[in-house]
Amino acid sequence: MKMIDVGEKERTSRIAVARAELRCSKEALKLLNEGRLEKGDALAAARISGIMAAKHTPALLPLCLAADEPAGLVRIEARVHAIERTGVEMEALTAACAAALTVYDMMKRHDRGMELISLRLVRKSGGRSGEWHRPDEEARARETASTARWEEPAPKAAKKPPKP
Fold first, then answer.
1. How does strand 132-133 pair with strand 66-68?
2. Distance set, CA 122 to CA 48, 81, 91, 126 (Å)
3. How far apart are CA 61 and CA 42, in angstroms?
4. Rounded to whole angstroms, how far apart are CA atoms 118 and 100?
5. Which domains does the chain have, with CATH numbers?
6. Would the CA dihedral through 150, 76, 64, 125 be positive or negative?
7. CA 88 – CA 160 distance, rounded (Å)
8. How far is it, in rounded angstroms, from Cα 101 to Cα 144?
9. What is the pLDDT of residue 152?
10. Has residue 157 got a pLDDT over 80?
């Protein structure tokens, strides 16, 4: 294994969106939606967890929310935007996963049979490979009525660092 040297790459705008889905019972989902979980507001905690996870992705990975009541599905979407030399796909995936695990932790007392059923990159832009969208995602997103979304504010345009 080896790290890739990106020192010569120019900083450009990078965006990645990832989504995680947690299947749970309707009873647990109702408690989540009504904010009646004993541990507190799971969606607020998931937002914080997702942001913290995105910021700490390099320390976690080497080399590198709304509810749909009929389906019993919590859909979490994380969007990361940065002016960087490398893509931010792993940060978006880490944020979505950490947020889903936070919701799981806060709801497990009410539904031990929950499943984290999906974690996927939805789209990305920027860098040499350009734009990419998951082909089936638009149809899949229409299957559930609402999606909770949060994102950090877009970073201010960074000045190009002087070359040494």
1. unpaired
2. 21, 14, 13, 14
3. 25
4. 10
5. 13-151 (3.30.70.640)
6. negative
7. 19
8. 20
9. 44
10. no
CA dihedral 63, 64, 66, 71 (to 10 degrees): -50
Catalytic center residues? 105
Distance CA 117, CA 103 (A): 13
Q: Which pLDDT score, from 0 to 100, does residue 66 have? A: 47
* pTM of the predicted structure, to 2 decimals: 0.65
Q: What is the pLDDT of residues 68-120, one digit of tens each?
A: 556 788 888 999 999 888 889 999 999 999 999 998 888 888 998 999 999 99
Reduced DSSP (H G I as helix, E B as strand, rest coil) percent helix, strand, coil of the chain, to 5: 30, 25, 40
Which two three-digit tokens encode residue 30?
């109702």
Alpha-carbon gap, residue 164 to 154, rounded angstroms: 28
Q: What is the mean pLDDT of residues 135-140?
A: 74
Mean pLDDT of the chain: 81
